[in-house]
Design goal:
Blueprint lengths: L8 E4 L3 H12 L4 E5 L32 H10 L4 E3 L1 E4 L7 H4 L8 E3 L1 H14 L3 E4 L1 E2 L4 E3 L2 E7 L7 E4 L1 E4 L5 H4 L7 E11 L11 H7 L2 E4 L5 H6 L8 E11 L2 E10 L11 H15 L1 H4 L4 E10 L5 E4 L6 E5 L4 H21 L11
Parallel strand pairs: 1-2, 1-11, 2-6, 4-13, 11-18
Antiparallel strand pairs: 3-5, 7-9, 8-9, 9-10, 12-15, 12-16, 14-15, 17-18
The structure holds flavin-adenine dinucleotide (FAD).
Length: about 375
């Protein structure tokens, strides 16, 4: 067993939230171990063991809101993390240039190239001395002798358990299983997407939306329907799903559409039937542009956490000193960098003055 000190921090979850908060905490001088069940399976030549990254991360489009400042600052400190400027196309409209879309903020629209991000992040963590473990935290952390104990499963080598003073729950839709008492606002959904690893032949698949994405654009609906479904998740009597047609490049390939399925209640539940979900997604895309429905793409689906009121959990967990949560983001790529910074500040200041409550509780 790894025996820890009060100032040692374990971050559970190696997705966007866990990765960035681990960086922030390590930059403040604390010893950090990042434990994640997911792996991108990047070539080991790229760095250390690279256990990092959500196995699901390839599904994410990485589209940011208007605020590129926080990513810019991250890149100043850690090098290229994949931030790319993009042109935004909205359905049914001529191209909107960023200055018209966002007055006073020309070019303020971005996307994180996730292939680049998940290559660069483990190396940045390594430079800061963050220990990276690929393992599943098998049950809720237990408080023992003023420390938290984590039971680990599924790792090739390394300790079967860890003891640390601080634990950050950044496990996305896995957070509730790790701490069932988290606030009821935290929910989870299943999201699916079509993934093309290479661009389709434009003669066979003639679509102006494909052309625009290929030219470096991101295509989004005027108004996404997913957030509205998330908002009414608290009053659902049965599961509901919606399709948001959109396109964004990912590395040398493309992500198309997004289907979101939300169930009543707090539990994620079993993955929905993939064939049914894919057919619904293709049907939804077909209403938008029939060419997209026929694309030779693979369907992929992942669990995603969200909060009913759109306010992510980012702070201490009620009644559990040293336990913190960072999950449930609506616009994760836009929101997480600042939230991770603020949480790292809260954790370090709580260690400097342990008697003072560090802020509003999140669960
Ligand atoms: C198709 C799609 C497109 C999207 N596009 C965008 C977009 O363009 N812009 C945007 O802002 N957001 C987008 N999102 C949402 C965004 O990707 C997610 O909100 C965000 O990636 C969540 O990051 P996270 O780190 O909180 O969780 P995750 O990425 O889910 O990471 C959680 C990690 O925790 C690990 N884990 C879980 N349980 C355990 C455990 N018990 N022990 C150890 N590890 C555990 C998992 O393996 C995983 O690695 C999209 C989502 C989908 C599905």
């Amino acid at each position: 067993m790894h025996r820890g000190r009060p100032g040692d921090v374990a971050v559970i979850g190696g997705g966007l939230a866990g990765g960035l908060v681990a960086l922030e905490i390590a930059e403040r001088g604390l010893a950090v171990v990042l434990v994640s069940a997911g792996s991108l399976g990047l070539p080991t030549a790229l760095g250390p063991a690279i256990p990092l990254g959500s196995a699901t991360s390839w599904s994410y489009a990485g589209v940011l809101g208007p605020d590129l400042g926080a990513w810019g600052q991250l890149q100043e400190r850690h090098g290229d993390l994949g931030l790319r400027r993009r042109r935004l196309y909205r359905h049914g409209q001529a191209w909107l240039d960023p200055s018209r879309l966002l007055p006073g903020a020309p070019q303020a629209f971005g996307q994180v190239d996730l292939n680049r991000f998940y290559q660069a992040l483990p190396l940045a963590l390594d430079r800061l001395g963050v220990r990276q473990l690929q393992a599943q935290v098998a049950q809720p952390p237990r408080r023992m002798g003023g420390l938290w104990q984590l039971e680990l499963q599924g790792q090739a080598d390394g300790p079967p358990s860890l003891q640390v003073g601080q634990v950050v729950l950044a496990a996305g839709a896995g957070c509730r299983a790790l701490w069932p008492g988290l606030g009821e606002s935290l929910r989870s959904s299943w999201a699916g997407i079509l993934h093309l690893e290479a661009w389709p032949d434009p003669k066979r698949y003639p679509s102006r939306w494909l052309r625009r994405a290929r030219g470096g654009g991101v295509v989004l609906p005027q108004a996404m329907v997913r957030p509205a479904l998330e908002q009414r998740a608290g009053s659902l009597a049965q599961e509901e799903w919606v399709v948001d047609p959109g396109l964004a490049c990912l590395g040398d390939g493309l992500l198309v559409g997004q289907i979101s399925l939300v169930r009543p209640g707090l539990e994620l539940g079993a993955p929905p039937d993939r064939a049914v979900m894919e057919s619904r997604l293709r049907q939804g895309l077909g209403h938008f542009d029939p060419v997209l429905a026929e694309l030779p793409a693979r369907y992929r689906q992942v669990p995603v956490s969200f909060c009913l009121d759109g306010k992510a959990l980012a702070g201490p967990v009620a009644g559990a000193p040293g336990l913190w949560a960072l999950a449930g983001f609506r616009g994760a790529f836009g929101e997480v960098p600042r939230a991770a910074q603020a949480l790292a500040d809260q954790i370090t200041s709580s260690l400097a003055s342990p008697r003072e409550p560090p802020g509003p509780f999140v669960g």
